[in-house]
């Protein structure tokens, strides 16, 4: 089927726009003027009425099934105090009286405005209920808190130890219900395991939302346990049943090398992937935690807690062995690293693997937040890919200086500097840590302001990206990370017809309005997968 789009502002490249585009069977055939392309015989003509069209947006790191799960749990993101967290939990139970395990997501002590600004603990959750287990995840998902009932069910006491994580003890020497990094999975084990049907439902719910905000590709970390076959099978079935609305690439997490070897003997050998709509993807590892939870691994003590240096979620020897095994099997590796010490460990491991100085597998760093100038330069030199989340600044602006001090703050969250150095930088949201709406993320990338427009001049405004660079980081750069820049990420002949039509022109509106952009239509492979009810 041939379709012609006319009267548009179609983004092709920096400062290059066309008004008309011809596609055939899901592939772009030509771009040009209305006059040039209307000479072709087509099956359908679509008048864009002057609207702006971008290449489909590609979130280079999120958790799609977890997004869907969040949509069905107690949402704690609005809580401005511990009392509000407790109140939201009580309200959810009142509205869902048959709840067997209360699961909450999204609390952030840095957002508390009343009372104590601290982590919630089991005593707080006991105010909600002592009859059923409760598990409330911090917004970063690197800290979870269980109530006393949850700890009792799992037989957790002061002698329980977890490698790569911490079960915190209170003043009484007993667990206070706070679990971080590798210990998070332990407290979450009180939650009944999801069935394949549950996983599919979560995936589809999140996918429908993702296409509604303009995402046509996602690189998603949904495999995060020993029970990996269930997740792979659930997503495989969605693909087989032709329910996949966007291009999906796996980021599978195996912190234990034996689990990774099990994957190599099974899914890696026998999984069916076309590498267009559905891709085998990359190994995703965790080196440390988050800045807000003070579990990001730092080279020196935190500025506001000198005795704390974070959590080493995977020691350097194990990190290298996992990376080496992946590299030998031609599998791309992506490593979560936020603190400067974690980032240095990752750089050192990659430098050993990339002995020809060409990062052909496109190994990369997820987050890359607290960096020195020397680290940025080495990342660019090695050609390491980087998946940044500008939207993290919405909450982190308030805590960065407290955590790392003046000098390190100046070279951290350096999206623009690293981009200008020529490193392959992409943008992502780490949803559900933040909303996967790309326009809110682009807003922060180009303004470095909160949604209330503070700080007015922008946080280290020299790190503001241009609109064009931010869009490219969401499209062609994200495609490069996957090794797919030869067929997606641009609107040009021979590329797949993945695009998004906007309700306003992102290139000419006031930059502070970018967060308010709405998607009129999302198209994947020439097929409409979302259309606004307000679209004409």
Automatic annotation (TrEMBL):
Keywords: Hydrolase. The keyword Nucleotide-binding does not apply. Pfam families: Amidohydro_3. The keyword Hydrolase applies. InterPro entries: Amidohydro_3 (IPR013108), Metal-dep_hydrolase_composite (IPR011059), Metal_Hydrolase (IPR032466), YtcJ-like (IPR033932). Residues 44-530 form the Amidohydrolase domain. GO terms for molecular function: hydrolase activity, acting on carbon-nitrogen (but not peptide) bonds. This is Amidohydrolase 3. It comes from Acetoanaerobium sticklandii (strain ATCC 12662 / DSM 519 / JCM 1433 / CCUG 9281 / NCIMB 10654 / HF).
